[in-house]
Amino acid sequence: MSRSENDFQKSETPWFIPEARGGSYLPHMCGLHQEIEDFYTYILPTAKESDLRCGVIKRIHEAIVSRWPNVYVDVFGSFRTGLYLPLGDIDLVVIGRWKHNPPYWGIANLLVEQGIVYPHQLKVLMHAKVPVIKIVDSSTNVRVDISFNNLNGRRGVTLVKEIRKKYPCFPKLVMVLKQFLSQRGLNEVFTGGISSYAIVLMVASFLDVHPRNHELSSPNINLGVLLLEFLELYGRVFQYDNVAIRSSEKSSEYEYCTKDSIYAFSSKNMDSARGRLCIEDPFIRGLDVSKGSFQAPNMAEAFDWAYTILSTYFAETSLEEPCKTSVLGQIVKISEEVLDFRDWVVRHHELRSSSHSPCASPTTKPRTREIRYSPSSPERRSHPPKTATQDVTQYYNYAPPPKKMANEARQNVRYWSHPTEGHSQRKRKRGNETQEEVGYPHPSTDGYSKKWNNGMDKNFSSRKFPNRRRAPRSSFVERFKGYRYNPEKLRVY
């Protein structure tokens, strides 16, 4: 192997240092066990990285509390448990009471005004199953997800701490699997991947149903064997069509059951497609936490591929030959983004003991793939970036969503029966009389307006079509207030 190839291999497997192990790793499975331990030590967040994220949390907390002093901002997820990757996101929850819906755009605009996030690095997912604000910190490029009134996060943190006390090998397996899925783009639920919470439950169920469960509490258990068995279970053996993961009612241990037994608790799970992963929330019966992971088949294929690579390697390797090359590096790599980010943290971030400024503001930014162009300055707000989303472009001046009155929005509505005729009103004859049809938009419709004629025409009467409700014209304007109308998509939402 040439020097350049050796340096490239070390950059992808920075945890593999044979000199620290006396020149080489132990042979066969024992060498993989040592590699997993070294990988866990390397991938754990350093003190500077933890302090960097604490500074991001404090800036967001101070900004939100300054506008809404009665709310409570809490941290949950992998950052709270300490099991997060260097490029992992921070999960925040805002707990409070509002008269109507939580101020999604209010908080988003506030963070933009205070310079915490740039407009092109902001997404407000109001209509998702779990409404969330996705931002990227402007000074550190750390991703943050802000949700509202999500009280299950604390219980999940407590659950992870209990599992770590029960199984010392649990955090090491979780970090290897998270990096394995992250480098393949299978760790984001927004894109159909597997969430960190689902990975935790998968590893916990694997350890609980293991045949040698009584031996897993020992710190000397072979991590290489456990990793290979996990890949075999969820890559080849597990029946995703009919089998689900759940925790038993009598104890906190996990077990396998049929999917129908979980779907029977809630009708919300009936639209889940067969073949996907099904994991029941240990705190809410009938709630499938992996319902949105439509890339579960790709995850199973990746586990199957990794099991084939490792099993083939060990079948062709002698039991007495020491490991001189990285075995774990055949399935897990460290990207250049992670190396650049950690180098940037070491060079530019300085710890400060003062509680008022826990994070030093860096002079330059880490190189990441998300920043493809330099952000526009405040003086250039009238020229948004080309790749900005439609919502960010529309509200680039940080104005709240506009509200249109009924008479203004009525002109942009097309008829559901004949949308090609545009906005023009049509007239049709009823006997000797001429009846004018007027289309009224309604918040309950899915884009196109219905024709309300107060039962004057028997062809469109409510008796023949009972689903066509009548809209009182007097209260129409009051009912339309508070809705944002988009004439391009013809949708009232």
From TrEMBL:
Protein name: polynucleotide adenylyltransferase
Residues passing through the membrane, by range: none
GO biological process: polyadenylation-dependent ncRNA catabolic process; RNA 3'-end processing
EC number in record: 2.7.7.19
Compositional bias of kind Basic and acidic residues: 367-382, 476-493
Swiss-Prot/TrEMBL keywords: Magnesium, Metal-binding, Transferase
Name of the top EC class for this enzyme: transferase
Poly(A) RNA polymerase mitochondrial-like central palm domain mapped to chain residues: 32-159
A GO CC term assigned to this protein in UniProt: TRAMP complex
Molecular function per GO: metal ion binding; mRNA binding; poly(A) RNA polymerase activity
The species this protein was found in: Cyprideis torosa
Annotated stretches, region: Disordered: 352-403, 416-493
Membership in a protein family: Belongs to the DNA polymerase type-B-like family.
